[in-house]
Amino acid sequence: MLTSAKDKLILTEEQKLMYSNEKVTNFRLISRQFAELAYNVIPVATAFQNLPVLVEPGLPLEGYRALLPARLLNSFVGTTAHLPGFVAYREDTGQLIVAISGTNVDSALQALYNIHALRHPHPSKRGKIHSGFWKLYKGIRTPCLAGLRDALTELNGRISEVVITGHSMGSAISQLLVLDILHDESLLPLGNAPLHFVGFGGPRVGTEGLVNFWSELVGKRQKQHGNKSFAEFAVKMHNDGQTIYD
Question: Is 69's pLDDT higher than 70?
């Protein structure tokens, strides 16, 4: 049986320095830990309840200490192929994080949507999108946005930035979510709060027209709210999220 550790975590000076710099050199590493947790191999609610134990050596989340300051706000399962995700808040940094799962190897249905690559017109009429990804996104759109809006209300004034992340197929679904938020700011009234997209090993989501639309929306947000109001990190290589010291 797992129990919550009551002892306060003590960080070394090196660890304190690393985490204080996470928005620069370690940002992708931090995001990757949340992206992997979204796979729900360990039910996400159970994982968050037992994080102090699960990050210890020899246990499933060994070394994932970036998760420790976080608390789970909301978890959801999409209506299409049961795709899971969650919304969490990092108390120490003020980061609101949305993580969407990639393809579960045990889900034949998710795999089918993953390879269902017919081109489907995007509602903006600015390009076409991967039809399987679009169906999966529509399945999580409502609960995901509802969870985000609830978090903005609960944490009013305490959010430093919003991070949307996912691995593989989860990266593709995350991009569609970001595209929606950029296109219609009323969906998620962020104001000047920075919005970051961090995708790991994500496949192509749409055609060149959709890419151009994305670029235009990013430019529009940065013009209205400042250059730091949006950033994207498309991580392709296996170790691209790791910090390497000389």
Answer: yes
